[in-house]
Write a structure and sequence with these properties.
Number of helices: 5
Order of helices and strands: HHEHHEEH
Largest sheet: 3 strands, antiparallel
CATH superfamily: Winged helix-like DNA-binding domain superfamily/Winged helix DNA-binding domain
CATH architecture: Orthogonal Bundle
Number of strands: 3
Strand order of the largest sheet: 1-3-2
Shape: globular
Distance between the termini: 13 Å
Structural class: alpha+beta
Length: 90
């Protein structure tokens, strides 16, 4: 699985790794907004938004509108991928 992730373009790989890392570190749910993700990954907001909607169409994340913010929530499908990545790393 790690080899397949290596084939993904760098921006998309960073996005997946960031979501997985945040999921592992958090004991309780902390909403991840597109603005926060773009700031942490040092990518433009537009690029982050395109990647998020692309992963939403693949079923890896869900995007909710809360006020003016867009909140990204990982799905079970992405959580399974994150678990496989951590198993491969060990």
């Amino acid at each position: 699985m790690k080899e397949l992730i290596a084939l993904i373009p760098e921006n998309r790989r960073k996005f997946i790794e960031f979501i997985c890392m945040m999921q592992r570190e958090q004991k309780e749910f902390k909403p991840l907004t597109l603005s926060m993700i773009s700031h942490e990954l040092r990518m433009s907001h537009l690029t982050t938004r395109k990647i998020a909607y692309e992963f939403q169409s693949l079923g890896f994340v869900k995007i909710y509108d809360i006020g003016r913010a867009k909140v990204v929530v990982p799905t079970e499908k992405l959580k399974d991928v994150c678990e496989m990545l951590t198993e491969d790393a060990q």
